[in-house]
Amino acid sequence: MWTRLVGLAVVAAAGGGAAADQRITPSGVGDVKLGRAYQALRSAQLVGRVRPGCELAPNRRAAPLRAPLVGSVDFTRSSPRKVARIAVRGGATARGVGIGATSAAIRAAYPQARFDRSTEEIFGVTLVEVPKGGGGRLEFAVDAATRKVTLIGVPSIAFCE
After folding, report:
1. pLDDT digits (tens, 9 = 90+) for 118-151
2. 12, 67, 102, 105 - which has most CB atoms within 10 Å?
3. Is 105 helix (H, G, I), strand (E, B) or coil?
4. Pair 149, 142: CB distance under 8 Å
5. What per-residue confidence (pLDDT) applies to 20?
6. CB under 8 Å, gap of 24 or more: what pairs does 127-135 form?
7. Which of 153, 113, 150 is closest to 135 using CA atoms?
8. Which domain does 120 fall in, by range?
9. Does residue 79 sit in the same domain as residue 107?
10. Of 149, 145, 85, nearest to 121 (Cα)?
């Protein structure tokens, strides 16, 4: 009896039933695409309820991504609200580079990526921009202390302080 239970526990711990990571592309993350309307995403249960976004940008709205994705979606100011920016904190990878990946992994997947260390002192992250000609408009935030990816933005990462 114990052998069977232990075997099931090992399969569950190894992620036997876990869903694979979604793909991050220049056009979006999984089924959440840039330019897609909030109502369509909400009815497909891809995002949560819309809330006020950055307090410094009046009339800006954002919604959390639903599982298996972790992150948020910023919407345009006009009606109908459409996806303007996607911030991913988990559940998706871009050419195999996900949250927790190293700077070297970004360089290997995107050789034309540009590293901007000017944000290290203020925000504690290095921004890595992938140009359109180098694999798409993407941006990675790499923690300055650990050198690991903490956030992936499509097409860029927004800062609201």
Report:
1. 999 999 999 999 999 988 899 999 999 999 999 9
2. 105
3. helix
4. yes
5. 63
6. 127/157, 128/103, 129/156, 132/26, 134/110, 135/26, 135/95, 135/109, 135/110
7. 113
8. 94-156
9. no
10. 145
What DSSP designation does 18 have? P
Please state the φ and ψ torsions of residue 9, each to the nearest 5 degrees.
Answer: -65, -40
The number of domains in the chain is 2
**Cβ contacts of 54-58, under 8 Å, gap ≥ 24:** 54/158, 54/160, 55/160, 56/160, 56/161, 57/160
Strands 83-90 and 51-52: unpaired
Name the residue among 85, 90, 49, 83 with its Cα closest to residue 67.
Answer: 90
- Domain check: are 34 and 59 in the same one? yes
Express each pLDDT in 20-31 by its tens digit.
689 999 999 999
Tokens 């996607």 appear where?
86
DSSP state of 83: E
Residue that the structure tokens 């580079």 belong to:
97
